[in-house]
Write a structure and sequence with these properties.
The protein is mostly helical. Helix content is 65%, strand content 4%. It has 50 helices and 8 strands. A 5-stranded parallel beta sheet has the order 2-3-4-1-5, sandwiched between helices. The protein is elongated, with a radius of gyration of 35 Å.
Length: 966
Amino acid sequence: MTGPRPEGPLVGREREVSRLLSALSACDRGEPRALLLRGEAGIGKTRLIRELVDAARSREGEPPPVVALSQCVDLGPIGVPFAPVRRLLQDIHRIVGPEEFAEAVGSTGVLDTLSTLVPELASDGAGSESRQDRYVAESIERVLEQLSRRRRLVLVIEDLHWVDASTLALLRTLSMTLRAEHLLLVMTYRTEDVTTGHRLREAVAEFERSRRIEIVAVGRLDRTEVNSLAMEILGRDPSVGELETLMARSDGVPFFVEELLGIPESELPPTLRDVVLARYERLPPVAQRVAGAVAVGGSEVEHDLLAAVWPASDEELDAGIRQAVATNLLVTTADGYQFRHALFREAVYDVLLPRERMDLHRAYAAELRRRVEHGDDTCAAPEAEHWLAAKEAGAAFDASVIALRHASDRLAPGTAARIGERLLELWPAVPDASARAGTDRLALSARIAHDYRSAHHVRDCLRVVTDALSEAGPDDIARVPLLLTELEAARETERRAEIAGNVDEILRLLEDRHTPEAERWRAAALSWAAVFATGTDKLGAARRAVEAATAVGDPSIRAFALTISARAWSARGDLLRALQDLDEGMPLAAGSSDDSLAAANESVCYRLQVGDLDGAIQVGLGAFARASDAGRERAGAHVLSNTAEAIIATGRLDEGLEAARRSIELTRGDSVQVVLNAIQIQGIGLVWDDRLDECDLLLATEGESASSAALDLQWVGVWNMLLIDLAVAKARREQAAPRLRALTAMMPLVMVLEDESVRDQPGEVDVLLVSGARLLAEIRLAGGDPRPETAAAIAELVTHMPHPDRGAPLMAMVVALLATAEEGDDEVQAWRRAVEVAERGCVPKRALHESRFRLAEALLRAGGDSDEPHRLLTQVTQQAPADGVSLVASWARTLRRRGEAGSPVDLTAREKEVLGLVAQGRTNGEIASELFISPKTVSVHVSSILAKTGAANRTEAASMHSSSGT
């Protein structure tokens, strides 16, 4: 049964190969793909990867391919941060060359950040940026995205069951967002190793739910496929007996089929474990000892490391390696050796005597410690794992302390947090643990929680905080940093409401403490108190926070407090005061930090609302550029989305739409808020440019994101604004009856403005005031009766907003729309005022053109001189399309055509009677009473009149009646 080949051909994998090649073709077309290849050990995942890699490297055409492969290595449950990514970056850098790589990186800041993984990338100015401004994961995302625009990137990372936390977080983001262009990301893992509690388990569940990641499950071979594989290896058909043996012993796993075919039938071992060991047991003793040393060393062992722990001569080591490689038990790598299959390593490790394993683990640990002492901190994590395996808790603890420092220096908070938890586990078994760790147990817990928070592992953060708080006494001051971290993390979860009580507990613990640290904590707690305050209490709480932060002199706490204060002023409607706080706070926040970006984002929003459009664009693009230079484009996406709104508002529609799309690409799968906001901005741009079909498609595609709008009052405002504006645009295309039905159906979206909770924070829903008033006006113009409670609520909210001359220019438009909705005598004057404010350049271009159009409408309804309406409509028709406001231009053209037509209309006698009474200003009820018909019948007649005359509303129809003498 012995076969001539160490590895069989690819048999029975047509479906899997087809899916891999299909993804490769998509990559060629510029459609990014992420694949997760999974299956049990020996099933053939690596064989499929080789098939893909060969196909990718043989591809011709543009853009040229870059194929980089890496694998996670078994360095214990924690691992070295970004270990497999380091190898990918090195391969990519080697293939594309330093110039193209640097061009893709785009800034020395990002290049220096990446040099923390690959030292040869460091620029001459390395180290010029502060640690907090360097973000490894986001920098990696950026360089891959930029390279994918000019290269086809095929990136493979195998054996995710051994992945470190930092690499896993990066891969989750890369595969869930797929921001790149010509990118194929392929990952593999062994299913039987991902058991309950494994760090990959949660990620796999997330991948399975995502439509962006294709799962390729590799199953066992059936009888026909095993027969074909055996025939390929043997060069003949297997006998019936051989096939029966193969099926019985291999269970259809290709690796076992191949191994069984390499063993004489008379020597076939009884179990699968013995099948795996058969190759090892045929080795000479020296080769077996080498294989054992490699098995203890890990999934891949450098030659120099193996030589350092080898107890005999170099000649014996070389001989043993050659024999193990010759029998295909070991294979060579770039720097050392690994087993041809992980099952070989596991089996060899298991047959070693306990003393042999312990001695080898100690030897590896000692050599790795020597390397750490010579400055190679990357060896600290594997050193700790070897000490643990050797049952040396103290040495493992000391190595973990160094590994924690290394993870922090490499900006890998997820890995740092896991190492910290390892220290907590070892703590009881280590004498003088506090002295050896340089911190006490609760302080370490606070650091772990903070690292988990920085890595966006909110649940783990809260778990650590809960455990630590249960250990701390009720009056222990160590509770304070834990409670502050809990405040920061839990506000993103369903626990948001319950953790507001943390503020009171912090202030109680600090009551009699006045050290500088205690004062900083107190100022931070007061800022959080302002976050949770509502209504009229919010502003007072915010001012107290600013005073406390100013007193302690901590720039970051003061920047945070000023941002919260700005939000409080905004909620009250005083945007100019809000901007004063932001202008004071932004210089205090460091570079591209989260605090700096949050303040910049608030500034963009408020400048938009007060009409400083150019200032909003300047602040927004500047902040996004700083974030990009630091490798933090994704963190700056929320600023970019709001800046897109400002760009569209100035009439640069295409540029604004592109910025909105970019912000979605950056945050897809990461921030519901940013994606929702950017979709709304895109939609508004499309609606007012009269591209309603495109907007419908956008909403249909993004239905899942839209479902999140109800989570926040501000989100409700912006999302309902889009839906209302879209409905108004569509309704204007309809005849009277369907128009009124469509508009009335939107009323529930505006009725949120009647809620008691909105009255003290009108700034949260300012955009909905405009769209809500527009809907009421359109209902009146379509012959309906706007809901008076809603109109009153909008009018009341407007009184809490600044005057149009003092920071809320769109309120002049709201007042005019309400005048139209109420058929007020001052309608024309209100629209003149709105036009006057809009022409100062402080409102979106769509508001300027709409105000001019509606003034023309109002003048025509008033029946005055037609020269001014004609001039206004001509102005809108000619200028609005260039500003991305084609919708209003189409309204203006329709109104001009109606005014110029003046043709007779064929009305029934009853319709003429109704129209005459409409022209007298009678309501439907009054007309019904006079003609002895029901109000519903009057409504039907009015709808018919509007349809026949083409009038936009009953007032316009009455005007046409008067001018034609009907």
